[in-house]
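Run folding on both entries below.
>entry_1
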Amino acid sequence: MHTMMTSMLGIGIIGLAAWLGCSRSLSPEEAGKVQVDEVRVAQLEKAIKDNKGKVILIDCWATWCVPCVKKFPKLVERHQKYAAQGLVCMSVSMDKLGAAEQYSKEKVLKFLQEKRATFPNFILIQPDKEEEALVKLIGDCFLIPHLALFDRQGRRIWTSADGPELTDEQLDKKIEQLLAEKP
């Protein structure tokens, strides 16, 4: 009986430790690595040009978009997996497309911190007023979630809106192919 209770106590402690580990909040240092900037399309275009020579994956999303929130962790995973090889992940919040009174930069930042999004994060200030320039730059991102992939020369080579639709594995393979190309 004593051995069984000791085993159960040990399992309980391990479970509690795992639960605490998964739900821990960010340290101040980690939180400081997660930032978000409110930008216009021209500033987003500059961020893409500034990363020429790298492969870029842009995720357009919003805190009020359930599929976006569900898929966002994949962007963080890709960043962790491929950043050292030359992938730059960028997130572009489309929160301002929702009800204006519900928009909160702090809400977007909190979400990004919770997801540990330590890559460039942007909030488009006027996506509806800059629609033409935005679509020209990253494709029809008004149906979110939306992904756009750029090669090392800064050319947009695929978007989730233009297709073909890719599974996570197919997108990873496409990223790996682009990373294998010389800058």
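>entry_2
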Amino acid sequence: MKTPSLLLLLLASLLLPGCVQPAHDKTVVYLLDVRGLPNVRQVGLRGRDNPLSWNQDLPLMPANPDSSLYRAVVTTHTGYLLTEVKFTVNGEFEFKEADNRRIEFGPGDTTVYRARFNVQ
């Protein structure tokens, strides 16, 4: 009786490595429009995949002279087809009771993602 279960265990261990997707570097250029928001002092990004974290902001930098557009470039090593993020302004999350933004990686190595704070 032990032989069939041992055989199944051996067979399963041989098949498992074939289920892992290969990982690649994926870069996302995040552009966030904060026009109309009062007293913007800092803009950040939080997310699922390294180097992002749900516990700490990755700062976005002003991308134009009037500071209405902020930018960050994030490269992650992943086997997934998408990532999840939320923006912060002055430490406050957008979409507090809603789903995260889902960013699908494009066919190339770099994806440009344009957004407005708290607008889907």
